[in-house]
Amino acid sequence: MDAGLFxxxxxxxxxxxxxxxQYVKEHYALDTIILYPSALPPHKSxxxxxxxxxxxxxxxxxxxxxxxxxxxxxELKRQGPSFTIDTISQFKTLLGGDTCxxxxxxxDAFFDTPSWKQARQIFQALPVIVxxxxxxxxxxxxxxxxxxxxxxxxxxxxxxxxxxxxxxxIRICNVPRIDISSTxxxxxxxxxxxxxxxxxxxxxxxxxxKDLYK
Length: 214
Ligand code: ATP
Description:
By secondary structure, the protein is of the alpha/beta class. The chain has nine helices and eight strands. Strands 3-2-1-4-5-8-7-6 form an eight-stranded mixed β-sheet, sandwiched between helices. It is globular. Bound molecules: adenosine-5'-triphosphate (ATP).
């Protein structure tokens, strides 16, 4: 089975997240994508952070009616900050066997990986799918970043795949461009603007009912 792993703060989950993962699932014929909210994102401030339970509930509600998506509380159950390398090992131990894992990262997260715990080991542990976010830049920034921060020896093949003799491939995926961020949603709520169309209806109602991000 091919399973995508998609972590995030999901504060809140939005239609950008949902649009890109539906595209990736179809494009790479993944059997499932597992979304896992982070408990304590090591790189983000906790200002305006909804509780782990609320973020989890919003993610569950957002994918409930979509086929082939699961939600895991794997990072919420662990003590301390959520490090991706630990999460990957845990998923492998839990589901291992014949599951082939792919790590899904937005390009901003990908370019941030040098500040992550044991970042290079992530690329030794599983193939990565990078979902382009914002302005399309072509492959040059990815090529130089990979060479400098992941490993020497990657070669760019057709279909935007960087391959290596000993390491897992890194695929750069030209997902539909959806310029939505959780920050934008929180800011809109603060300033009394509508978030309709930016998040699924379930999430909009959840936020309103619980009076989040005011
Ligand atoms: P915030 O604005 O609070 O920083 P965010 O919108 O970036 O949040 P996260 O939950 O931090 O959302 O994102 C989880 C993952 O989804 C990250 O890998 C991020 O790069 C990716 N991502 C989020 N929104 C988009 C988008 N619109 N297009 C492509 N990737 C995205």
